[in-house]
Design goal:
The complex is a heterodimer of chains A (361) and B (348). Chain A contains 13 helices and eleven strands. Chain A is an alpha/beta fold. Chain A folds into three domains: 5-61 and 181-244, 3-Layer(aba) Sandwich (Rossmann fold); 69-170 and 254-298, Rossmann fold (3-Layer(aba) Sandwich), CATH 3.40.50; 314-356, no CATH class. In chain A, α1 packs parallel to α10 (221-237), α2 runs parallel beside α13 and α6 packs across α11 (256-265). The longest helix of chain A has 17 residues, at 221-237. Chain B has 348 residues and is α+β, with helices and mostly antiparallel strands. Chain B is built from eight helices and 13 strands. In chain B, the strands form three sheets. Chain B has a seven-stranded mixed beta sheet, sandwiched between helices. Chain B has a four-stranded mixed beta sheet with strand order 1-6-4-5. A two-stranded antiparallel sheet of chain B has the order 2-3. In chain B, α3 (113-130) links the parallel β4 and β5. Chain B is globular and about 65 Å long. Classes of the chains: A alpha/beta (361), B alpha+beta (348). Chain A binds chain B through residues 1, 4, 8-10, 13-14, 36, 39, 42-49, 63-64, 89-94, 114, 116-117, 120, 138-139, 142-143, 193, 221, 335-337, 346-348, 355-360, and chain B through 198-200, 263, 266-267, 270, 272-273, 275, 321, 323, 325-326, 328-335, 337, 340-341, 344-348.
Chain lengths: 361, 348
Amino acid sequence: MKYIDEYRDKNLIRTLAEQIEKRVRRDYTFMEVCGGHTNAIHRFGIPSLLPKNIKLISGPGCPVCVTGKGFIDKAVACSKMKNTIITTFGDLIRIPGSGSSLDKERALGADIRIVLSGLEALEIARGNPEKKVVFLGIGFETTAPGTAVTIKQCEINRINNFYLLNAHKIMPPAMEAIIQDGVALNGFICPGHVAAITGSGMFSFIPAKYNLGCVVTGFEPVDLMMSILMLVNQVNRNLPKVEIQYNRAVTQNGNILAQRYMSDIFESCDTFWRGFGNIPGSGLKLRKEYEKYDAERFITQDIRNQEDDGLCICGDILRGLKVPSDCPLFSVNCVPDNPIGACMVSNEGACNSWFRYRSDE
Amino acid sequence: MKEHVIRGLDTDQMNDFITLNQGSGGKLTHRLIEDVFTKRFGMSEPLTDSAIIKDSTKLTSFTTDSYVVDPLFFPGGDIGKLAVCGTVNDLAVSGAIPRYLSASFIIEEGLPVTDLVRIAESMAEEAISAGVKIITGDTKVVEKGKCDKIFITTSGMGILDPRFEHIGKGERISQGDKLIINGPVGNHSLAVLGARNKLSFKTPIVSDCASLNSLIRHVLESSKEIYFMRDLTRGGLATVLNELAGMIKKGISVNETSIPVDDPVRGLCEMLGFDPLYLANEGKILIVAGRSETDKVLKIMRSDPLGKNSEIIGEIVPDKRNLVLLNTSIGGKRILDMPSGIQLPRIC
């Protein structure tokens, strides 16, 4: 299949693995920021192709994992309102809140529907004018423009029963928080789809300020192997910079139209990240003129985000401080069938990927 | 004389929609059963409480399954066809020759009669082509909202040759035996998903829904080294492989590149974040065959229209942990685990 097979070419992968092997001369730790990368790395068995002294750690780029329990609690509260349809991306549906989950509420009779985009949710609102339709907007720069377009469409078509429960976030402040946390890193495998929107320029503060290399990476095995080779070269030459490996989708400046939509609809705000707590300037909130679409207005209780307690180390995993196998609950009490932390629920969560695609070692 | 399906609707006797009255047990129920089911299934009158089967001195295989698919009609099949082939396949993979089926219907009031007739015709047609008889059944009508349009339960009985008794449990499987599947995986699941209008685009994907008993019979008659068979339904290939490894207490090694997946299925899976190895099929089986007979079995399977894309996908290996190991398409290695819960489309 075009655009797939050539990026999964066994011989090309072998050549890249040999090149990496040849150039390795120390220990390297690279962080894949995006959950899509975590999933691909384990699905294709990339670690089994790398020399032992290259360590890949997962970052905070699984949007579902970094969404606080408070957001789920708010979504659950909305789902209990009369005449309300909740529309959500599929991954969110099984995430446990502090008391319930959308999955459980659906079984109890709430009208909760999985959609693939905000525009699909808008169609549901159009078809059900007597109901409130709440769209759960989560994700980074990848999904935020889609939500922005949806709000714009709402405005143009004067749809007045569509609401956004918003937890959109942006990536750079979380990456900076990780560096400031003191995680021992030698470079970032940067999120390709985020960069397709923002442009690779967004990461240039990382080499400039923190002397760490960044390679914007695609999601196929050849992409990942090539990026790892590029990062190894950067470290060996001590020349950290932002490079684009994923050049079939990413440019320096990104998608200007999408950026314009985002800045028209949203403005920057502080927001809560599971595992990190509050990160200044890392969230996106609706601008004043669009606040009428904000579903927060329906939330009457005081719902706050709380950090995970007990033995769960999702927070440390999301910050790159620990790996899933460090967790005493991992694969013992916490498994995909019975997830305790968010990283085990989402397909793109580090624990879930580690568990599903663990190698046989 | 070749059997044929009685088609068409006696509109003058029928309502447009099923009503609770037709589940009352009275005249209307009788008429519904006669008009829709008995004549199409070729059941002999008078209808009694149970069917009597004469050949029960032989080893008998018995199975049951319920069908609740939504939507009722999808590219490549419908709930009726599914209810017949699903149960036929469950019997066939245990080594039995499927003979008789029962069919039980729970119908929601308001179901258009034309839909019910279409379903009955499809069942009759599939039963004829699979060589089984639907000999008993039941019909209930429930209030609106108490079920989703129609649920069907079919039970099946088949005759089992004692030579094949070991197949269901895989008792004779040993290290080095090969795994064969009869074609590409994932089509049924995605055909149903597409028909549910859950996708904002059209796909050319058609369900593989089919009765495999003739293919299976062919294979069993030609080779003495068929050690296990299982249909790859709910949970897909990955689930069956894990169940098998656990049952026989051995390891399984599978090559990702050998597993056939049609391009539209691959493409859609890439987009939605699904793994075709976990998707349900309704016309696919896994066969474990002895090393020395593998090529022969493969050839026989490929000579059948329902097995023309058969492939050897892996083999039984020694492994104390009873794991299924996947050699990935790029030369990596990882565990292929059981799925957890339903697959959900990913966010981005």
